[in-house]
Specification:
There is one protein chain. The protein is an alpha+beta fold. About 20% of the residues lie in helices and about 40% in strands. It has one domain. Strands 2-1-3-4 form a four-stranded mixed β-sheet, with helices on both faces. Strands 8-7-10-11 form a four-stranded antiparallel β-sheet, covered by helices on one side. A hairpin with a 2-residue loop joins strand 5 and strand 6. Helix 1 runs parallel beside helix 2 and helix 1 runs parallel beside helix 4. The longest helix has 13 residues. The radius of gyration is 17 Å and the shape is globular.
């Protein structure tokens, strides 16, 4: 944990407050594990990023470190599969933690705060390829989506539910004895529709549970994020 202060200082120095004023919020996916000794600094960095305007920061806990002696209570095979899909799209043979994926494209070591800040600023300054608006009424989420200018190509619409924060006492594995706080923990990631990228579309999603939700529109085959938004 001795690297935590420099990491957060780098973020504060390099990342302006309104990074996505011109575009869609920048989506950060952190692939992490409670059983990974190099992950706590990245988890803390994600917590810092989650408080930034114009950033949607999500923690996807994987399950492939569970054999080290501590089962991650948030780990899901689906998260491991998503990380593997990113690796396949990038023609890479291996996956690792902590890894951050910025806007579905930039693949960065999860503790490289300077690089992550640069990527957030770069993507945040780009015009949004699509316009996404959400309206939530209890368990119903209304979604409106349309291209911002020209057609974007086919994309998947994902609905992501997440837990804002949870403190965990780690009793085994590489982080045994640590009391760690995790932020924006993904509990469910569901692909609900395919969009043609050209036509305006309105849809309703029923049956939302309490808690925040993110909608992410991503080009098919693990392409770039075209639009994203959150609703409480």
């Amino acid at each position: 944990m001795r690297f935590l202060v420099p990491f957060l200082a780098a973020v504060a120095a390099l990342l302006p407050a309104g990074v996505s004023a011109q575009g869609t919020p920048v989506v950060i996916e952190l692939f992490t594990s409670q059983g990974c000794s190099s992950c706590p600094p990245a988890d803390a960095l994600l917590s810092e990023l989650a408080g930034r305007e114009g950033v949607i920061a999500l923690a996807l806990h994987v399950d492939y470190w569970d054999y080290l002696g501590w089962k991650d209570r948030f780990g899901q095979p689906a998260h491991t599969a998503r990380q593997k899909a990113y690796a396949k799209a990038a023609h890479r043979r291996s996956i690792f933690t902590p890894e951050m994926i910025v806007q579905g494209e930039a693949r960065v070591k999860g503790h490289d705060a300077e690089r992550i800040a640069r990527e957030i600023a770069r993507y945040g300054a780009q015009p949004a390829p699509a316009v996404l608006t959400l309206a939530r009424d209890g368990a119903t989420l209304s979604i409106h989506l349309e291209p911002a200018a020209k057609a974007t190509g086919p994309a998947d619409i994902h609905i992501v539910r997440f837990l804002p924060s949870q403190e965990v006492a780690i009793e085994g594995g590489e982080n045994a004895g640590s009391q760690l706080t995790y932020t924006n923990i993904v509990t469910n990631w569901e692909t609900v529709a395919r969009w043609d990228g050209a036509s305006p579309v309105d849809m309703r999603y029923e049956g939302l549970e309490e808690g925040p939700v993110a909608v992410i529109v991503q080009r098919t085959r693990m392409g770039p994020v075209l639009a994203a938004a959150t609703a409480e």
